[in-house]
Write a structure and sequence with these properties.
Layout lengths: L3 E12 L2 E9 L5 E3 L3 E7 L5 E7 L8 E3 L2 E7 L5 H8 L5 E8 L11 E7 L4 H5 L1 H9 L3 E8 L8 H10 L3 E7 L12 E2 L2 H6 L8 E7 L1 H13 L7 E5 L9
Parallel strand pairs: 9-10, 9-13, 10-11, 11-12, 13-14
Antiparallel strand pairs: 1-2, 1-8, 2-7, 3-6, 4-5, 4-8
The structure holds flavin-adenine dinucleotide.
Flavin-adenine dinucleotide binds next to strand 5, strand 7 and helix 1.
Length: 250
């Protein structure tokens, strides 16, 4: 796969620990991507070995499958992390190689009655990418729950985009689950605790529901077990764990 070239356009703080980075994409072939997919950004370790880190495309896609010449990613800083160090040092105009798109964490062609899109942290970005396709499915009668886990309200990334959708569609529910600190003025659906505690209150229906889990691997594992115990078959629990690849050694 010929690498894509990404040129940094901007970096903006989303909170103390997370930034939105925008890049121009140049590639030999048109960069065709489906909402929910990710890229691998290439880095060279201090010992000279090539490695990569994966980042979901966070831009709101005009259509579910589209050609993009510019992308946003949301990067959560990890102390001592390789990508963290490199991406935080980049300046506007600096370039980076990437490959992709990769992944099948996308809305399936079949329309389901109820969608539970569950995330922690930057794991919410694939759902932001899907917003226009979500709107089409809302118009066709589906119901959506975006269940977003964070320690406090500063972790509710891109909240305005989800709140705007909730204000326009009765069938769209944005459910922030705050595990450490509640808001002084809670939103209409704010929950106290982990996303798993919210999911535990629901009954799921294998005929009509589909669930997506994205972000912190512990959340993904716990929620996966919970949903299976509640009777959802494995193909109806789609997962994307935000983990780093093993450290490459010579
Ligand atoms: C498919 C996929 C999509 C992803 N999308 C995104 C995305 O959109 N945004 C994003 O920010 N990340 C995303 N990730 C995670 C990302 O690829 C990196 O793993 C992460 O940014 C850390 O990279 P790093 O090089 O800074 O840290 P590393 O050098 O990889 O890690 C440094 C140390 O921190 C530990 N560590 C790694 N991640 C965490 C963490 N989250 N919390 C605590 N400790 C950690 C590592 O085990 C290691 O010991 C995704 C991962 C996958 C597999």
């Amino acid at each position: 796969m010929t690498p894509l070239k990404l040129t940094m356009l901007s970096r903006e703080a989303l909170n103390d620990n997370t930034v939105n980075m925008a890049f121009a994409v140049s590639s030999e072939q048109p960069f065709v991507v489906i909402a929910g997919q990710f890229l691998r950004l290439h880095f060279t370790q201090d010992d000279g070995l090539e490695t990569f880190r994966s980042y979901s495309v966070a831009s709101i896609f005009p259509e579910e499958k589209t050609t993009l010449d510019q992308i946003d990613i949301a990067v959560s800083w990890v102390p001592g992390g390789l990508a963290t160090e490199r991406l935080s040092q980049m300046q506007v105009g600096d370039q980076l190689e990437a490959t992709g798109p990769y992944g099948r964490f996308c809305l399936l062609p079949d329309r389901h009655e109820r969608y539970f899109l569950i995330a922690t942290g930057t794991g919410v970005t694939p759902y932001r990418a899907m917003l226009n396709e979500i709107e089409l499915r809302l118009q066709a009668g589906s119901e959506f729950y975006v269940v977003m886990g964070a320690q406090d309200a500063t972790g509710l990334l891109y909240e305005a985009d989800f709140v705007a959708m909730e204000q326009r569609y009765e069938g769209f529910h944005y459910v922030p689950c705050l595990s450490r600190q509640q808001r002084d003025k809670p939103g209409p659906n704010d929950q106290s605790g982990y996303v798993q505690q919210y999911l535990a209150q629901h009954e799921f229906d294998a005929e009509n529901d589909i669930t997506y889990l994205c972000g912190n691997p512990n959340m993904v594992d716990d929620a996966y077990q919970l949903l299976k115990d509640k009777g959802l078959p494995v193909p109806l629990i789609k997962r994307e764990k935000y983990v780093s690849p093993p450290i490459r050694k010579k």
